[in-house]
Amino acid sequence: MVREHCDRTTALVNESSQLVLAGHVEPQDDLRAERKRASFSSQELAVVLNGGTEVLQRRSRLISQLQSTSWGSQAAVSQRCFHSREQLHVEGLVAQTEIWKLMQSGALSQQDAKDMETLLTLPGGLTLHQYMFIPTIETQGDEEQQAYWLPKARALEITGAYAQTEMGHGTFVRGLETTATYDRASEEFIIHSPALSSIKWWPGGLGKTATHCIMLARLIINSKDHGLHPFVMQIRDLHTHLPLAGVRVGDIGPKFGYNGVDNGYLMLDRVRIPRRAMLMRHARVTPDGHYFPPSAENAKATYGTMVAIRALLVDEAGWVLARATTIAVRYTAIRRQTSERVGDKELQVLDYQNLAATLLPLVASAYALIFMGKASSDMYKRFEQDRDAGNLASLPELHVLLAGMKALSTWTAADGIEACRRGCGGHGYSALSGLPDLYASYVQNVTLEGDNNVMSLQTARHLVKSQEAVAKGRRVEGSAAYLQRAEQELHRKCSVQAPQDWQTAEVLDAALRHRATYLAAEGHKLLLRHGGGKINFAGPDWNGNTVQLIHMAQAHSQLVLHTTFAQSVHQADLEPAARAALIKLVALHGMSLLLRDLQDLFMDGYLQAFQAQMLVQRRNELLLELRPDAVALVDSFGIADYQLNSCLGRSDGDVYRALLEAASGQQLNKTEEGPAWNAVLKPWLDPASRQQARSKL
Ligand SMILES: CCC/C=C/C(=O)SCCNC(=O)CCNC(=O)[C@H](O)C(C)(C)COP(=O)([O-])OP(=O)([O-])OC[C@H]1O[C@@H](n2cnc3c(N)ncnc32)[C@H](O)[C@@H]1OP(=O)([O-])[O-]
Ligand SMILES: Cc1cc2nc3c(=O)[nH]c(=O)nc-3n(C[C@H](O)[C@H](O)[C@H](O)COP(=O)(O)OP(=O)(O)OC[C@H]3O[C@@H](n4cnc5c(N)ncnc54)[C@H](O)[C@@H]3O)c2cc1C
Questions:
Q1: Measured in angstroms, how far is the CA atom of residue 460 from the centroid of ligand 1?
Q2: pLDDT of residue 520
Q3: Any idea which residues carry the catalytic annotation?
Q4: Whose CA is nearest to atom 1 of ligand 2?
Q5: Which of 604, 635, 666 is the last residue of a domain?
Q6: Does residue 448's CB lie within 6 angstroms of at least one atom of ligand 2?
Q7: Which residues form the Acyl-CoA oxidase C-alpha1 domain (predicted)?
Q8: Angle, CA of 15, 27 and 82, to the nearest 5°
Q9: Where a domain ends, among 125, 159, 178?
Q10: Residue 257 assigned ligand-binding role
């Protein structure tokens, strides 16, 4: 029977290659026509966006290399959506350790290895080892500690997780409860989980993979609590992988997505670790129990790894949205629905304004975030250089910028993937589209590494403080420097007199800046209401106004994002046609941001109704102007079919045959009658079985 089904599947797939779509245009022809009418070369723009021809060539080479392996072949990748948690967990680790092997043998550089993992899009239990365990030792361990731990970690003789979050607290880091009590007699720390709420809960790779972790615990010496400090802690035996005495560790169970990764729990019953397990680059405990705190400017050093990851998340967001929009734009350009008369050529669904108005602004957001990601990682690299030279002056600005931008970018990408999925109609709901898994795996980013509301409030705190500084005549530097001119700004009115005026960069920048300034001034006023002239960042004025404060922080981050996008396009080395298209995309981005929260511009009379109508009109015109370039704009992201792993987003547009082939080849179709026939359906449906059952009664 199995054989029979396989034969029929092959026949069906072969047959489908002969089939034409009655009354339709062949999808491949649609995509070919789209590419022909583009106003610029997507190959050339892809080179600019990706940072050079060499990067694209290297990526193709890595994909070929992946395809030649059993764990990274196209077949392995496309089967993934049919696999169980356990299978995904093992597959993730197989891929990560194989890539590690290639890196150790010198066949891959560190960058190649990272890129290979990104291309594979199969998260595994070693991700946190690479992105948080090793970096925390690098940045928070002293030289001797680095020399001891790093070679073992890099050789994968030990694997680590980042154990900060507890059952009771993720956001309120200062409220974490795990204790590290110093025992002077033995020169050891005793790590203990004092309550149910103190159990470590969520760390990636902790459940089944990690032998060690970075343990964030309150340092207690002579009953004095010195707050949170990082420790390197072994939790499993290196020979047996069994938990050490006093350690209870396991996986926290299935999640919304990202199920190959073993996010874990960890409960500790007075487990002893040596004094030198505390990472001592910034704070120290001597053998006789003297505590040397970090310097004042290093006070937030323990939070350093989180800042690094937030920079990575900002960098990743644009590329994830680029994947989703590539799938949705290509598919909606071949998908045809509805003609006036049956049998006539139907419209490509991307030509309906509702879809263009959903997808084209998301393409603009993906471009904006890609440029912002580059700017953020450049900024983070500069900070690293300064930090290594002992200068931490730029950390406060970096923190507030990345906090708000992490929130804006991950919200935009997560909501954007879901909008793309819906935009693809029924086929978007199929796992074969690649969109459900992309969303389920990605949406965690709005929560982890600082919940987005909480991160926005960190930026809000900075904006209110900046507004306060301006009010007191002090200078404000950095991304909030525009607040310096708040008083003049608040008297300005929108200058638009014709729809075309909205297209100009100055008008859009001015409106976004006005909105951010107005909201910051209002936020500041709200917080001064009951404090007798003093702002309390934890009191009822703050807690009762967080909706407004988060909105204010997001308006600021949108301004930073938009101006960075515009500047980056201005500075990029682009051919004139691509530049012209991107300038329109920048305008669409700014207009879409304004339209989303138009009420803000009416609040203080900055905007008049006729100007708002012109904004809508100009946005609608822009959608039409950009429509011919839609496919070229997503082709320019340069994302390979291998990485898209989507029947809908494939670059040749052969969507329907791909769907049929993938569906008919899956496990549930392995037999014609299906796995429930014999035990469940047959006794009801097969007349002979029914007869037999009755005769037994
Ligand atoms: C692959 C990824 C997998 C996932 C992994 C994870 O999720 S791991 C788990 C990830 N978990 C999370 O992400 C947890 C999220 N929670 C947190 O990060 C913190 O609890 C907090 C930032 C919300 C508050 O912290 P708090 O109560 O200690 O601070 P406060 O609000 O009282 O402000 C006091 C001052 O500190 C400043 N400042 C703050 N942070 C930083 C910084 N990093 N740097 C520099 N400065 C910083 C702030 O600007 C303010 O300055 P001001 O105005 O006085 O000049
Ligand atoms: C997939 C995944 C992987 C993770 N990996 C790790 C890891 O490797 N290591 C690790 O240590 N942790 C990890 N975490 C934990 C993660 O960092 C936390 O979940 C995150 O910081 C949010 O904290 P919380 O869960 O306590 O949410 P809560 O703080 O309980 O949030 C609940 C709600 O309250 C709101 N809220 C909370 N505090 C405030 C406030 N002060 N002001 C306004 N609103 C507030 C939030 O906006 C949210 O809506 C991971 C989480 C996930 C989902």
A1: 13
A2: 97
A3: 449
A4: 444
A5: 635
A6: yes
A7: 303-464
A8: 65
A9: 125
A10: no
**Residue type at 129?**
H
**Whole-prediction pTM:** 0.96
Q: Is 453 in the pocket of ligand 2 (CB under 6 A)?
A: yes
Q: Are 638 and 46 in contact (CB under 8 A)?
A: yes
Which of 132, 165, 410, 550 has most ligand 2 atoms within 8 Å of CB, for mutation? 165
Print the SS3 string covering 542-570. Answer: HHCCHHHHHHHHHHHHHHHHHHHHHHHHH
- Looking only at the bridges linking them, the beta strands covering 291-292 and 284-285 are antiparallel
Per-residue pLDDT of 418-469, as tens digits, reads 999 999 999 999 999 999 999 999 999 999 999 999 999 999 999 999 999 9
pLDDT digit string, tens, across residues 109-155: 999 999 999 999 999 999 999 999 999 999 999 999 999 999 999 99
Encode 387-417: b = buried (16+ Cβ within 10 Å), e = exposed.
Answer: beeeebebbebbbbbbbbbbbbbbbbbbbbb
Say yes or no: 136 and 99 in one domain: no
Q: Same domain, yes or no, for 243 and 116?
A: no
Confirm whether residue 204 is marked as ligand binding. yes
Is the same domain home to 334 and 398? yes
Paired sense of beta strands 179-183 and 188-192, if any? antiparallel
Distance, CA of 364 to CA of 367 (rounded, Å)? 5
Q: For residue 671, what are its two tokens?
A: 């037999």
Residues with CB under 6 A from ligand 1: 131, 162, 164-165, 170-174, 204, 300, 303, 306-307, 309, 395-396, 399-400, 448-450, 454, 458, 461, 465
Do residues 196 and 310 share a domain?
no
Tell which atom from ligand 2 comes closest to the C-alpha of 165: 11
Query: Quick one: tokens of 439?
Result: 């969303």
Amino acid at 394: S
Taking the C-alpha atoms of residue 278 and residue 215, their distance in angstroms, rounded to an integer, is: 9
What CATH number has the domain bearing residue 140? 2.40.110.10
d(CA 21, CA 391): 65
